[in-house]
Amino acid sequence: MSSYTVEVPDGEELGVRVTCEDHGTTEEFHPARRTVAFFCDRCGYELEVDVRATDDWRDLGEMC
Fold it and tell me: How far apart are CA 58 and CA 46, in angstroms?
């Protein structure tokens, strides 16, 4: 399986950047989008990334 890097640069004007390390494929997404789907056509994998702030986090074990 390939290796991926997800970056969320500091600053509200910058979006999420996802890179396939094996193939050098990079895509940067609009800052307003925090759930993105990255596809590397050389790997054939689609990676869905959901970035959340720590104050927005909740334990899914609390769900009834």
Answer: 26
Q: What is the pLDDT of residues 3-50, one digit of tens each?
A: 999 988 776 667 889 999 999 999 998 887 778 999 999 999 999 988
Q: Residue 4 corresponds to which tokens in the numbers above?
A: 């991926």
Separation between Cα atoms, residue 31 and residue 54, nearest integer Å: 17
Backbone torsions φ then ψ of 21, nearest 5 degrees: -65, -35
**Residues near 39 by Cβ (< 8 Å), separated by ≥ 6?**
45, 46, 47
Q: How far apart are CA 3 and CA 43, in angstroms?
A: 10
pTM of the model: 0.72
d(CA 35, CA 58): 17
